[in-house]
Amino acid sequence: MGWNMPRWKELPASLDQRVRQLIVQLRRLKDHSGLSLASLAAKTSYSRSSWERYFNGKQLPPRDAVEELARVCGAEPTRLLVLHEVAAEAWTDEPGADGAEEPAGTPVRDGSRRTILVLVTAVVVLSAALVVTLLTTRPWQDDDRKRPAGTGNTPAPFVFVQGRSRPCDVQREGGELRAGYSATHTSLMDLKTSGWEVLEAQCLLKHHGFDPGVTDGSYGERSKEAAKNFQKSRGLVVDGVVGPDTWGELRR
User: Fold this and answer.
1) Band of pLDDT at residue 143, cut at 50, 70 and 90
2) How crowded is the C-beta side of 201, counted as CA atoms within 13 Å?
3) pLDDT at 164
4) CATH number of 17-101, picked from 3.40.630.30, 1.10.260.40, 3.40.50.12780, 1.25.40.10
5) Which residues does residue 220 pair with via DSSP β-bridges, in sequence order?
6) Could you tell me the pTM of the whole model?
7) How far is CA 221 from CA 98, 189, 201, 217, in A?
8) Which superfamily, per CATH, for 171-250?
């Protein structure tokens, strides 16, 4: 009594002989098991549509699929796995072949591996370029932090940033105190004044023990109050306006 053999579609003529040999053996194993495609899908990790593609030569079945087919059919998988290894070396995508519905955990095809590799490489290159840019420009540092005073260089434009406190490093140079932001001895400063000269005055006031608040280069009420207290301590006119006399004392 013979088996009820299904009418298989003819395999593509362009299919490599090594792949064809594997698929023929898989078809025979499936036929002798008496399992339908639906039953095979229910007993394995692969869908009915996937098995249909494998048996019709539209896609090379994964190694795991070959092992599972042998298991559910009660066959020894060793010979099939050898055929699969040979077929995998010869496999190329058939024209017009559509993608299979692979279960979770199925190995990624070579084309997908290449795409992932390209994307990962691009991310690594972009990340490296960003690191180099950050290390070169160092945006977290103040380029104007210690702008030399009295060198004749054109000063960088002052940009006020609300709440941004710039560092003060007051040192004695040429017999006078300097914070490095301005070498002025004459600039007049009162409320709402801003600039490098204000920042210089704030740092000098802070150095003498009179807190001007945030050293941000903007002359506000707290800076003016600190200037008044400083003027009072030095016997100057107490008006909170920083002028030549106050500068002279600040530089001492």
Assistant:
1) very low
2) 37
3) 87
4) 1.10.260.40
5) none
6) 0.42
7) 75, 12, 14, 13
8) PGBD-like superfamily/PGBD (1.10.101.10)
